[in-house]
Amino acid sequence: MILRAAALGLALGLAPLVASAQDVEIGTGAALRGLDKINGDTVDMMLATGESAELGNLEVTLGECRYPAGDAASDAFAYISVRDPRSNQPVFEGWMIASSPALNAMEHQRYDVWVLRCRTD
Is residue 83 within 8 Å of residue 61, measured between CB atoms? Predict the structure, then answer.
């Protein structure tokens, strides 16, 4: 019963977001930032759609980056895939939002990745 109430509350809380959906444009790529949580090093990755980059022993691939129509400097959201070549299971695969990276965060003991912005060049 408590679980149903929580799900209903979540659905009602998200209803205004669905109603306010906006037009988006697709970028040519994205700027992502990676963090090594052990030594504090960061690396910026400028990826084109479909391109991959290495972050330590992980492979980060950009599927697509979208942003609000007419405002490329606004909030970006990107579909990214993060894989460990030593394993068949993805570390992370899904949409990440630049302004709310914790909404759908990558869970990894050493590395963190988040979206900075879409590229339009």
Answer: yes
Neighbours of 23 (CB within 10 A): 7
Please name every residue paired with 61 in a beta bridge, in sequence order, or none if there are none: 52, 81
1-26 tens-digit pLDDT: 444 444 444 444 544 444 456 799 99
Amino acid letter, residue 2: I
Q: Are 69 and 39 in contact (CB under 8 A)?
A: no
Q: 2: number of CA atoms within 13 Å, CB side?
A: 0
Instruction: Report how far residue 19's alpha carbon sits from residue 35's, in angstroms, rounded to the nearest whole number.
Output: 35
pLDDT mean over 97-116: 91
